[in-house]
Description:
Layout: H1 18-36, E1 48-53, H2 59-70, E2 74-78, H3 91-101, E3 104-108, H4 112-121, E4 126-130, H5 136-150, E5 156-160, H6 165-177, E6 180-184, H7 193-206, E7 209-213, H8 216-220, E8 225-228, H9 241-247, E9 266-269, H10 281-284, H11 291-309
Parallel strand pairs: 1-2, 1-3, 3-4, 5-6, 5-8, 6-7, 8-9
Amino acid sequence: xxxxxxxxxxxxxxxxxxxxxxxxxxxxxxxxxxxxxxxxxxxxxxxxxxxxxxxxxxxxxxxxxxxxxxxxxxxxxxxxxxxxxxxxxxxxxxxxxxxxxxxxxxxxxxxxxxxxxxxxxxxxxxxxxxxxxxxxxxxxxxxxxxxxxxxxxxxxxxxxxxxxxxxxxxxxxxxxxxxxxxxxxxxxxxxxxxxxxxxxxxxxxxxxxxxxxxxxxxxxxxxxxxxxxxxxxxxxxxxxxxxxxxxxxxxxxxxxxxxxxxxxxxxxxxxxxxxxxxxxxxxxxxxxxxxxxxxxxxxxxxxxxxxxxxx
Length: 311
């Protein structure tokens, strides 16, 4: 393990270089190999890791708990509703107390500023398990899945779905790795300016091509990867569900719209997915789908981050 990762927070992929991200992915592959062999890899034996989840979760919660356990550490689920946070204790007090008990903290919450505040007050590593702005663990799992099925060559990703945390992280990764990523969406649905500024600047360095388009066919044409995501992400956009279902009608990955992609394209989705909205059942259950490989890879990439950053 590289010593330069120890003690670092993992709040956004924008904080890491391509070399560092590649190293995390290589560690992920090795840990995946050890897991498949049922070989022990308890690199964090005796450590304690807290998990604060303020949003519903299946994949992130279970994958992190499994990853922590495989590494020999003990996971602690910390429900905000039964903590003093629910009675108004400031984050800075909670954070400094947890810092004395835990070796690391995983947080799934709403604003990016929340994980940043925990990191500000804690000496131990803080890991972002999802905010409204970014989802770095999903971004890592996405690239690992692409590497496994498409190698490390230059590719085109055709993305359709909400411009939210998953899209932001995939745009960041695509800009870092020099990929083409065409994002199909109705007019008025655009990335956060902070993310877009980073993506534009990084693309100038790497030659990446990140394009926003209202044309679904343009996004999918000759794509190596078709990536669908919900039209109404968890958080604020869910309140606009009816409007979004109307706005996004016609932006679906289905057997007809994906015909313009490469014959050997892979289909990806971060889940949960809504059959009949952003995709059809035939697409997610079809021969191109690698959705459940992608879901498994969450555990392996999270495990790598935990093993690398927790002292």
